């Protein structure tokens, strides 16, 4: 697992937005081979979504061949309620990028048969060959998606009762009226997230500091479900300075030093690539001068 630290939520959003755009562009998705992206809601990913929207507007990124699967949705909240995750995603991202509506998948919290809805969701993900990159946030109690403390780390998409802390935390979106916050949700499971090829987690703000330390400085534990990420082969957490407040100085220094080394290695690789392409040009020019046609 890597931890990258940026100054504030805006810098975190810029970093993750650029990172995702690069992954999509390097993948070069086509209609036959789309890029499958998992997405979260919440306030934390908003700066990332703003970066993605800007990159699309600048012509540096396209969602034409991107398929999305959202993490979760409330049960029993009308789809057009301003706080439903359907409304959130449309407002914060989908209405502002060139994603075909049929490429978007969000759990239906009003489905007649919620269990079938969850099982079908898992099958749809599988049918696309799995998720390439899952972007996620965390709750203050360390939950990922709506996998509240005590969730099985092997869990899959299912119905979950929300923890009281989560209901309280989300009341800010419902005029601070906790009775208005749905008490149940459909959510992808911890294992659904772990099954994706790559996981990127955004953690910003002091509110998340304890959860971050529990997730990365202690063992894998179902009481802090994000900690399951320690078992993932390709995981990245991007945090702002405030979110690191509960981490040991040693942990922060360690991950910062790793990032520095990584940057040096990348700079060296780019330099070598540059040298190789210059070498390639020289060879091609020499070949042309002695009449060898290039293949
Ligand atoms: N189900 C969502 C999570 O996916 C999200 O990570 C969390 C944090 O939200 P915020 O980013 O607003 O703190 O909120 C909800 O619980």
UniProtKB/TrEMBL annotation:
EC supergroup of this enzyme: hydrolase
SUPFAM superfamilies: NagB/RpiA/CoA transferase-like (SSF100950)
Matches recorded under CDD domains: GlcN6P_deaminase (cd01399)
Gene Ontology BP terms: carbohydrate metabolic process; glucosamine catabolic process; N-acetylglucosamine catabolic process; N-acetylneuraminate catabolic process
GO cellular component: cytosol
Annotated Glucosamine/galactosamine-6-phosphate isomerase domain residues: 11-221
Domain of life: Eukaryota
EC number of this enzyme: 3.5.99.6
MF GO annotations: glucosamine-6-phosphate deaminase activity; identical protein binding; isomerase activity
Stored Pfam families: Glucosamine_iso
Keyword Isomerase appears in the UniProt entry: yes
Keywords: Carbohydrate metabolism, Hydrolase, Isomerase
Catalytic activity: alpha-D-glucosamine 6-phosphate + H2O = beta-D-fructose 6-phosphate + NH4(+)
Coiled coil: none
Entry-linked InterPro entries: Glc/Gal-6P_isomerase, Glucosamine6P_isomerase, Glucosamine6P_isomerase_CS, NagB/RpiA_transferase-like
Task performed by this protein: Catalyzes the reversible conversion of alpha-D-glucosamine 6-phosphate (GlcN-6P) into beta-D-fructose 6-phosphate (Fru-6P) and ammonium ion, a regulatory reaction step in de novo uridine diphosphate-N-acetyl-alpha-D-glucosamine (UDP-GlcNAc) biosynthesis via hexosamine pathway.
Family of the protein in this entry: Belongs to the glucosamine/galactosamine-6-phosphate isomerase family.
NCBIfam families, per the entry: nagB
HAMAP family with a match to the protein in the record: GlcN6P_deamin
Name recorded for this polypeptide: Glucosamine-6-phosphate isomerase
The organism of origin for this protein: Coprinellus micaceus (Glistening ink-cap mushroom)
């Amino acid at each position: 697992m890597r931890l990258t630290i940026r100054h504030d939520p805006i810098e975190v959003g810029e970093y993750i937005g650029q990172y995702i755009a690069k992954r999509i562009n390097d993948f070069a998705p086509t209609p036959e081979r789309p890029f499958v992206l998992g997405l979260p809601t919440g306030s934390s990913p908003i700066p990332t979504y703003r970066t993605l929207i800007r990159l699309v507007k600048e012509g540096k990124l396209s969602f034409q061949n991107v398929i999305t699967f959202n993490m979760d949705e409330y049960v029993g909240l009308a789809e057009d309620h301003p706080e439903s995750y359907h409304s959130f995603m449309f407002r914060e991202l989908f209405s502002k990028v060139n994603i075909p509506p049929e490429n978007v998948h969000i759990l239906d919290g009003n489905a007649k048969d919620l269990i079938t809805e969850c099982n079908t969701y898992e099958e749809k993900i599988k049918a696309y060959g799995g998720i390439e990159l899952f972007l996620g946030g965390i709750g203050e109690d360390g939950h990922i998606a709506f996998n509240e403390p005590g969730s099985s780390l092997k869990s899959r998409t299912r119905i979950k009762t929300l923890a009281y802390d989560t209901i309280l935390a989300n009341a800010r979106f419902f005029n601070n009226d906790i009775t208005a916050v749905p008490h149940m949700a459909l959510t992808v499971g911890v294992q659904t997230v772990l099954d994706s090829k790559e996981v990127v987690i955004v953690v910003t703000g002091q509110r998340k500091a304890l959860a971050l330390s529990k997730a990365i400085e202690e063992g894998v534990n179902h009481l802090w479900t994000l900690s399951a990420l320690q078992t993932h082969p390709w995981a990245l957490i991007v945090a702002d300075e405030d979110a690191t407040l509960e981490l040991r100085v040693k942990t922060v220094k360690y991950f910062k030093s790793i990032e520095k080394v990584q940057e040096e290695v990348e700079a060296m690789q780019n330099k070598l690539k540059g040298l190789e392409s210059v070498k390639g040009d020289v060879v091609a020019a020499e070949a042309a001068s002695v009449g060898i046609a290039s293949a």
